[in-house]
Design goal:
The protein has 288 residues and is of the alpha/beta class. It contains 12 helices and 8 strands.
């Protein structure tokens, strides 16, 4: 199926990335179902979308008619079969556990058959391994979005070893339909963005650990000296220290010790200092 023919989408996982993806799909005009096993997660996701859309209208970035249409197009679900029913595209955005993702891709493939497009928002896990669990591995691709999804333009479209070129093209076209700029990436550990982003982020954390400079000044060096829109430590806070630790551990296991996570990162995660979502990371977010 071509991206232009897609009418119905399901997003699995109502967390930060999931509800952001669902928002953009609904704004694109697709009938969008946001699924999570926890009813409270679904409700939080829907509320976050409504808040984002309202803020967009207030700032003059979103037309009121687009907001109203997106709210109408978006629905919340806790029943997986109901969320998947008749979907043309499914985007998975659940936690980075490969067994969980494989189970979902098996179940969605069994229900929807070979015509749907199946995409994972994984930031580092092997799409080739995920696709092996699907009854239709040729329809499985990666669509790695960036936070906040409704603002960030990049989407990494990742081709698994089994991905049919038509599925890859459909994902590229869908990303463009969503107003994004896609890049075409081969399935390799960390893809393009996570591999580079983690390398810079881990070194920035080591610099804090070694008291080279404060987190604020390290970030300022990259923003003012290298033109980064955001420093690597503030970005780590937004992504989540636990998420970055998980990615770094995976890259260490696949690419070697150059991705070994700093001890400071492990300690902060153990203390529950996960960044913005916990109120504290390299920055204090408690007042926001």
């Amino acid at each position: 199926m071509n991206a232009s023919d897609m009418k119905t989408a399901a997003v699995l996982g109502a967390g930060t990335m999931g509800h952001g993806i669902a928002q953009v799909l609904a704004m694109t005009g697709l009938e969008t179902r946001l699924f999570d096993v926890a009813p409270e997660a679904v409700e939080r996701g829907l509320q976050a979308v409504a808040k984002n859309l309202e803020a967009g209208v207030s700032r003059g970035k979103v037309e009121a008619s687009v907001r109203d249409s997106a709210i109408t197009k978006l629905s919340g679900h806790t029943d997986l079969e109901g969320a998947l029913a008749g979907a043309d595209v499914v985007i998975e955005a659940v936690p980075e556990r490969i067994a969980l993702k494989q189970d979902l891709f098996r179940r969605m493939g069994e229900q929807l058959g070979p015509k749907a497009l199946y995409a994972s928002n994984t930031s580092s896990l092997s799409l080739t391994e995920i696709a092996k669990a699907s009854p239709h591995p040729e329809r499985v691709v990666g669509m790695h979005f960036f936070n906040p999804v409704h603002i960030m333009k990049l989407v990494e479209v990742v081709r698994a070893d089994q991905s049919d070129p038509s599925a890859v093209q459909a994902a590229l076209d869908l990303a463009r339909r969503m107003g994004k700029e896609p890049i075409d990436v081969r399935d390799a550990p960390g893809f393009a963005s996570s591999r580079l982003g983690i390398a810079i982020g881990m070194e920035a954390i080591r610099m804090v650990e070694e008291q080279v400079a404060s987190a604020e000044d390290i970030d300022k060096a990259m923003v003012l000296g290298y033109g980064f829109p955001m420093g690597p430590l503030k970005l780590t806070d937004l992504v989540g220290l636990d998420v970055r630790l998980s990615i770094a551990e995976y890259l260490q296991s696949t690419l070697g010790d150059r991705f070994t996570p700093p001890e400071l990162l492990r300690q902060m995660v153990a203390r529950g200092e996960l960044g913005k979502k916990s109120g504290k990371g390299f920055y204090d977010w408690s007042a926001q």
